[in-house]
Amino acid sequence: MIVRAAGMVSEVVWREPLSRVPADAIVRPLATLVLTSHDALRERLRSIIVGCGGLCRAPTSIATAWRSVNAECALAFIDIAHPLDGGADEARAMAETLAAGQGALLAVCGRPTDAGGMPGGADDEECWARQMGAFVYLPGVGSDAGIALLIDEARRIFRGGS
Parallel, antiparallel, or unpaired for β 105-110 and 75-79? Predict the structure, then answer.
C-alpha cells in the first residue's frame, strides 16, 4: 500500500489487485445533488464535487429536480437564493422533502447576510434552514477549498469515521 498526500488530504493507492484490498477500504463515491438556476454556481459546484471524486447530478428543470430529489443522494446543495425556474417555494419543498426523507445532508445556499438583518432576508433563511436540520447554511458560497472541505466532511460522516 502507498499513501499519497497533497497538503491536508491523503489518498491510499493500492498496488495489489482489488481481490486483496480489504472490503472496508472500498468506498462508493459520494452522490451529490446540486439544485440551482445559477449556471456559474452549478458548474463550479459540479467541478469541485467531481474533483473530490464524487458523483454529481445537477438538473436544470423543476421536473428533473423532483426526480433527482427522490433518487439516492448523500449530500444536496439547494440554492434558495437562485431557485430553479425561479420557484422559491419549490426549492424549499425539495429541501424539506430531502430533510424528512432518506438522511441526505443538506447544504442550503442562501443570500449573503445583509448588514441590517431585514425581515424576510438572509437571517430568516438561515433560521429556516437550521430548523429544518440542514447540515450547513451557506450565505453565498465561499471558496472552492471551503466547499471541498465540506464535501470531505460529508464523506467522513457517511463512512462513519471520527
Answer: parallel
Q: Is residue 137 part of a domain?
A: yes
Instruction: Tell me how many domains the chain contains.
Output: 1
In a domain, 9, yes or no: no
Range of the domain at 71: 28-159
| Lookup: cell for 154 | 460529508
Q: What is the pLDDT of residue 3?
A: 44
Give the distance, in angstroms, between the CA of residue 126 and the centroid of all CA atoms in the same chain.
16
Would you say residue 6 lies in a domain?
no
Residue that has been written with the C-alpha cell 499513501 in this structure: 3
Query: Residue 105 is placed in which grid cell?
Result: 445532508
**Which spans in 3-143 are helix H?**
39-51, 62-69, 88-100, 122-132
Give the model confidence (pLDDT) of 87-135 as tens digits.
Answer: 889 999 999 999 988 678 999 998 876 544 444 566 788 899 999 899 9
| DSSP string across 50-66 | HHTT-EEE--SSHHHHH
Shortest CA distance to 27 belongs to which of 152, 136, 118? 152
